[in-house]
Design brief:
2 domains, 8 strands, about 0% helix, about 100 residues, two-stranded antiparallel sheet, two-stranded antiparallel ribbon
C-alpha cells in the first residue's frame, strides 16, 4: 500500500517510488528504494480531470516552443542562412533546396 507524503510516494515500510538509475529517460524503470530526497524520487499528483490536454495540429506546444504537425526548418544565423539537414546519419548545414528533411 502506497500513500502520498509531501513530494514522495511512500509504502508501508517507508520505501519510496523512484526512477531507477536516477536520470530521466524514456522507458526507465520505476523501483522502490530508501528515500534520499533526490528529484528522481519526487512526484506530483495531478488528477485526470485537471490534466492539460495535449495540443492539437496547428496549436503551439508550449513545452517545445513549436507548433504541432507543422513543417519547419532550423536556420543558421550565419550570413548564408543555411538550414540543418541530415545526410545519412550526419547532421549538416545546407543551402535551402526545398527538401522537407
Amino acid at each position: 500500500m502506497f500513500r502520498s507524503v509531501g513530494e514522495e510516494i511512500v509504502n508501508d515500510k517507508g520505501k519510496v517510488l523512484e526512477v531507477a538509475g536516477g536520470y530521466d529517460g524514456e522507458n526507465k524503470n520505476i523501483a522502490v528504494a530508501k528515500s534520499n530526497g533526490e528529484t528522481h524520487q519526487q512526484w506530483d499528483i495531478t488528477y485526470a480531470d485537471e490534466y492539460p490536454e495535449e495540443p492539437k495540429k496547428g496549436e503551439l506546444n508550449a513545452d517545445f516552443g513549436l507548433y504541432v504537425e507543422r513543417d519547419f526548418y532550423i536556420v543558421s544565423q550565419m550570413s548564408a542562412n543555411r538550414y540543418l539537414d541530415l545526410i545519412g546519419a550526419n547532421m549538416v548545414i545546407k543551402t535551402p533546396n526545398s527538401r522537407k528533411s
